[in-house]
Structures are given as C-alpha cells and as structure tokens.
Specification:
There is one protein chain. With 376 residues, the chain is mainly α. Helix content is 63%, strand content 3%. The chain is built from 14 helices and four strands. The strands form two sheets. A two-stranded antiparallel ribbon has the order 1-4. A two-stranded antiparallel sheet has the order 2-3. The protein is globular and about 60 Å long.
Length: 376
C-alpha cells in the first residue's frame, strides 16, 4: 500500500494531487457559480418533491477531488475555491461568510482526512462507532433543545406541518430513544473494535454487502424525504423566521431571492442524518472487515471516507450563528439564527448532502470500475 500521508505538504506536488486539485477547483467554479447564475439546475418539476430549489453538486466535487488528492493543502485549496465561487442571489452578501467556511472548508478537510489515513481494522471500527454515535447525539440533542424552545409552534401557527421531538409526560421520548440508540451503537462498535480477528478474504463479498447497505441508506432516505414533506414559500418563511433569517436561507441554499423550503412531516428531520449514519456505519463495517482481512490488518476508507461528513456541518453553523455566541462576539444586534430556523438549516442541508452523496457514490463506483478495467 502506498505510504500517503495527509499532512505531508510535499505530497501535494504529486501529479495525482495536483490534477485532482486543478480539475476539482474548475468543476467547483462551474457548479457553485455558473450553473446557479445561469439557472440551469433550477428544475421546477422537482420543487414539489424536494428542495433546495437550486441543486448544486459542489459537495460531490469536493468529496471526489479531496478523496483522490489525499492531501491537506489540496483540501484547503479546494474548499477555498468553493468559498470564492459561491453564488449569491442578492446584490450584497451580509450574513453567511462563516457558514460558507464551515460548509466548504470543513467538509473538504475532513473528506480528505478520512479518505487518506491508513489504520488497522480495529481503529476503523472504533472511528465508525464514535463518529456516527456522536452524530446521533447531535440530532437528538438539537431536537431536544428545540422542543424545550417550542420552536415548532412558529411553523404550526403558520399552517406548516412539521415533525418534532414531542414530549410525553414532560419527557422528550423520541429524542431520548435516538440518544439511547446512538449510545448503544457506539458501545457495540467499541466492543467489536477490541476483538482481534485475522481472516484471509477471498472475493469481495463483504465489500459488496457494505456498498449495497451504504447505497440503500442514502437512496432510501431521499425517497422517504420526497414522500413525506410539505413545501412552503418565501412569504411563509418570512412569517416563521423573519426577513434576515430567510435571506440567510436563500443565500445558502435556494440561490434565488425568493426560494421555497421544506418541512418533514412524518419523521423529525433532525433524525434523518443520524439514521442514515447508522446505515452507512454498518456498511462501512463490512468494508473494513474486507479490506483489513478481519480487524488486525491495515486499510484505508479511500472513497468511502467522505461518508463520515453528515450533520457536523449544520451543527457548527447553528452554533456559530446562535444568539449566545453572536451576543458574545457583539454581533447579535446585527444577525443571529432564530431557533425555528434551525429546522430548515438541517433539512435543506440534509437534502443537499444526500443528493451529493448519491452523486459522489456513483462517481466513486465509476472510477473504481475504470481502475479495475485498467489493471486487466
């Protein structure tokens, strides 16, 4: 296995890393700037089923190019290219710079990091358990906070149905269930990561099973979202979130001044990425078992590394723009995110991320097939 180190600055100048950075930055400029500018990705036929109104594939390009480049310099440059290429539907850009850095630079950094680092199968299983378990805690924790804030009332008072973490006898039952399951998931993977298993593998049985589970987790979530949502327009959004928060959502996701947004009706939208994460984690466990020949051998996540990037990004966004933090830095009088706005931030990012993960998954499989053919 080639000794590639993510933080080795000199490896950025390898041909593969340079080409991945160059073409990645170019494709990012296309999908993040020019396609929204020309309105090419605004498909009205899709708006009844899923938002954001403008679908960009910037995240998919980041996933693919960073996973190929496998270098921190490349990841930072690719993420920076996405920030600089950002298309703003308004004449001025007032609220979202920190969100851009979180979405693109953080995503690019961790996509490359998880794709590059070599580790034992035991370490891989441990990382799966901790990361996807923590993502479950993020979903349930944010949902619990919003339930205590009664943020769902802003939607219901404007005739927008939305699922949320309900209280039963003053106990946030559903949030607690998700948190407990996340803890169990984490503990199970920590336990199995302690076991040393060495087993020579014939064929690709476990790899194929893992890939199928990952694909079904992503595609299944998208189908569920498309069948269990309600779409509300910009005027209703202003009534729920206020004008400045609606502008922020339009800047980040819709790419048009008067966008539409989604509320999930049959399942709390904050649970979707954790549930997808559990499925992806199980799929990755099969892949680890195959590549590490059990748990004791060495392996890399490679193209599957970016699948670790789930709800960390929206969580960091709401933390950065929360009233306590904005008040701490003296900016709360200018802008902060209302608690009700946290729902569409998670929902819109979930939709965009899943679409991009699916696109990246297909691209990864095409690259893998091409490599296999080239080796014959």
């Amino acid at each position: 296995m080639t000794k590639v180190k993510y933080f080795h600055l000199g490896q950025f100048f390898s041909l593969k890393s340079l080409l991945a950075t160059f073409f990645g930055a170019g494709l990012i400029a296309l999908t993040e700037m020019f396609l929204p500018l020309w309105g090419i990705l605004q498909e009205e036929a899709l708006w009844e089923w899923i938002t954001p109104i403008t679908i960009t594939f910037t995240l998919a390009v980041i996933f693919v190019s960073c996973a190929i480049a496998k270098n921190v310099v490349a990841s930072i440059l690719i993420g920076t290219a996405a920030v600089l290429s950002f298309y703003n539907p308004y004449e001025s850009f007032d609220y979202g710079l920190a969100a851009l850095l979180i979405i693109f630079v953080i995503t690019a950094f961790f996509a490359g990091f998880f794709a590059t680092n070599e580790m034992t199968g035991r370490t891989g299983l441990l990382i799966i358990g901790i990361i996807f378990g923590l993502q479950g805690f993020i979903g349930s924790g944010v949902s619990m906070f919003l339930s205590f804030q009664e943020a769902q009332n802003d939607f219901h008072s404007n005739s927008v149905r939305i699922a949320y973490g309900e209280f039963i006898n003053n106990i946030p039952v559903w949030d607690t269930i998700v948190a407990v399951f996340s803890l169990i998931f984490m503990i199970v993977f920590i336990i199995i990561s302690r076991k040393i298993v060495t087993k020579p593998m014939e064929g690709k049985k476990f790899e194929i099973i893992g890939q199928i589970i990952i694909f079904l987790s992503i595609a299944g979530a998208l189908v569920f979202i498309a069948l269990s949502n309600t779409i509300f327009d910009n005027s209703t959004a202003v009534l729920i979130f206020g004008d400045t928060n609606t502008i922020f959502l339009n800047e980040m996701f819709s790419k048009i001044p008067r966008g539409s947004f989604m509320a999930i009706t049959n399942l709390n939208g904050l649970y979707i990425l954790p549930i997808v994460g559990f499925g992806i984690g199980i799929g990755l466990a099969f892949i680890v078992y195959q590549r590490a020949e059990g748990t004791s051998g060495k392996m890399r996540f490679n193209f599957e590394g970016p699948f670790f990037i789930l709800n960390l990004v929206p969580f960091l966004i709401i933390c950065a723009y929360s009233y306590p933090f904005q008040n701490l830095i003296g900016s709360s009088s200018y802008f902060y995110l209302e608690s009700a706005t946290w729902f569409p931030i998670f929902t819109e990012f979930t939709n965009l991320l899943l679409i991009n993960l699916l696109a990246a998954y297909v691209i990864f499989k095409i690259i893998t097939i091409i490599r296999l053919i080239a080796k014959r």
